[in-house]
From TrEMBL:
InterPro entries: NAD(P)-bd_dom_sf. This is Oxidoreductase. The lineage of its organism: Bacteria, Bacillati, Bacillota, Bacilli, Bacillales.
Amino acid sequence: MPKIGFIDYFLDEWHAEKYPGWIDKATDGRMQVAYAYGKTNIEGKLSNDAWSEKKGIQLLKTIEEVVEKSDYLVVLSPDHPEYHEELSRLALQSGKPTYIDKTFAPDRAAALRMFELAEQYKTPMFSTSALRFAAEYAGIDNAGIESINSLGPGKFDNYAIHQVEPIVSLMGTDVRRVMWTGTDKTPSLLIGYADGRQATINLYGWECPFNMALSYEAGMSKFMTIESDFFGAFITKLVGFFESGNPPVSSEETITIATILDVGMQAAKTPHQWLTLK
């Protein structure tokens, strides 16, 4: 039975809690999360020892042990991407299929270094927001999209990824500039493409569902609210990646997304001014 190892900043978090059961269900028990490592314990959360005992997953003392014992690797820390490069270094040198949770990297430079390391050691690797795989997006004709207006919940630093990811998957990677148009409480970022197309992301608090309006060059428009089981679709893609070693998301798209978020954070300091992507 193929064994999956978790590498996390701390283990008592939502993704680490849910992924083992979802993977077990998606594979009819053919794959199991068997090992885990947590860098630290967090006040107010279960200790890594207590979490592992509760989940029936063996806690290991080092990342080296997790990498050595596991067939496939998942680097979590979904709300602390500043630790992804550190936590993933040995995994990316292992040659074993490795998934790195959202948000992939805190900046473009880190994203490039991580992909370069994976390429050097021929390690299959990808990262994504689960929203990319929502059934509503899968049915969209992306030919001729002129503009997208996207809305959703959360804060910019850890939830903007869920809107930028689908936009790049639908509109492509030729993004040239971004402009901050929001406020502290309602972040908003305008994304400008080289050919004049554009997209906007808006974050309107935790009560706001993910939804999107699209306009086509031919004059048609489309509006949708994301209601499908996008996490289920993501887990199916993750399992397929482990089995095939073929990443379902290109490095070009992931680096573009990381760059948009990186420059977007800088743009918040100079609202209503275009900043050119690196």
